[in-house]
TrEMBL record:
Oxidoreductase in keyword set: yes
Native source organism of the sequence: Desulfoluna limicola
Source lineage: Bacteria, Pseudomonadati, Thermodesulfobacteriota, Desulfobacteria, Desulfobacterales
Identification of the protein by name: F420-nonreducing hydrogenase
Main subcellular location: periplasm
Record's subcellular location: Periplasm
Length: 307
């Protein structure tokens, strides 16, 4: 008997759904074992009935519920609650769902400030009217899923690597805990750490890092943080490289931006990174701006005071 799966997207960009498609031939293997009963990105299933005859939002019962995106407005919250009630297990797919993601940067502003900036202009032109009809009201901030509903499996990443997605789904089908990395990006990074502490200030990523051989850039590459670039590897969860292990961004000679969220689910990337920089003698005043340390994990009251 096929396992029933429901999937929905909330405050997201659909990148996590692309990661599912990137499973490639493995997706065909999964489709032989599961039955999608609700997945707006692939099939037409209306919340209020196919003809809009329903009075309440409903989602079919399922064994597994996959939700990407965080919760920003009343509709997102309603869908998340309905998914939780109808699904035995909930998978938070992507950093927006697990830690707020990029949208949670809005938590540094109030709703009125955001709307005023969006619907006004610095010119003499009259700004457009704010839409009202049929628009779900905003909540007071951008929330990760587990702030409002119970989550069983957290699968961070922006987006998660297809290898990680496949392992999480396969583990549910096989009735076992997923085998996901719980170490930091630094623990899987092949870059050489000399630990000399000769870098005191950070620099903007405007020039490429020094490598010994661009034909084999990862061989002998010195730690990007030790080269003076802000690399979030020490405080970011590993797994972005999938089964190949090597971090995706660093493999492209780009410093880690922290998209996989904190190493521990309840970690604080900003605080942990500030501690890491200070302990290495790097001047905190050389940071371009502090919010970048929390750009993917601004939910859980990390960028605003709890109410």
């Amino acid at each position: 008997m096929a396992v029933k799966v429901a999937s929905d997207w909330l405050n997201s960009c659909s990148g996590c759904e692309v990661a599912i498609v990137d499973l490639g031939e493995r997706l065909l293997t999964l489709l032989e074992l599961v039955e999608f009963v609700h997945i707006p990105v692939l099939m037409d299933h209306k919340y209020y009935g196919q003809m809009g005859e329903g009075k309440e939002l409903t989602i079919p019962e399922a064994d597994v519920g996959i939700i990407s995106g965080g919760i920003r407005n009343a509709e997102h919250l309603e869908v998340a609650i309905e998914m939780r009630e109808k699904c035995k297990y909930i998978v938070a797919l992507g950093s927006c769902a697990t830690h707020g993601g990029i949208p949670s940067l809005s938590n540094t502003y109030g709703n009125e400030d955001i709307l005023q900036r969006y619907y006004s202009t610095m010119t003499t032109d009259q700004g457009p009217e704010r839409p009202k009809d049929g628009i779900p009201p905003l909540l007071d901030g951008s929330y990760a899923l587990d702030e409002r509903i119970k989550v069983d499996i957290f699968l961070p990443g922006c987006p998660p690597h297809p290898d990680q997605v496949f392992e999480a789904l396969l583990s549910l089908l096989e009735g076992r805990p997923p085998n996901l990395l719980t170490t930091s990006v630094c623990d899987t990074c092949p870059a050489v750490r000399e630990g000399k502490g000769d870098v005191k200030q950070l620099k903007r990523f405007l020039t490429p890092p020094v490598v010994q051989d661009y034909a084999k850039p990862m061989e002998g590459l010195r730690c990007l943080l030790e080269q003076g670039y802000l690399c979030m590897g020490p405080v970011t969860r590993a797994g972005c490289g999938g089964d190949l292990v090597n971090p995706r961004c660093i493999s492209a000679l780009v410093p880690c931006r922290g998209c996989n969220g904190p190493v521990k689910q309840d970690g604080n990337q900003m605080l942990d990174m500030l501690n890491a920089l200070a302990s290495n003698g790097i001047e905190l005043g050389s940071l371009p701006e502090v919010t970048s340390l929390q750009r993917f994990s601004g939910a859980h009251c990390m960028l605003r005071q709890p109410k």
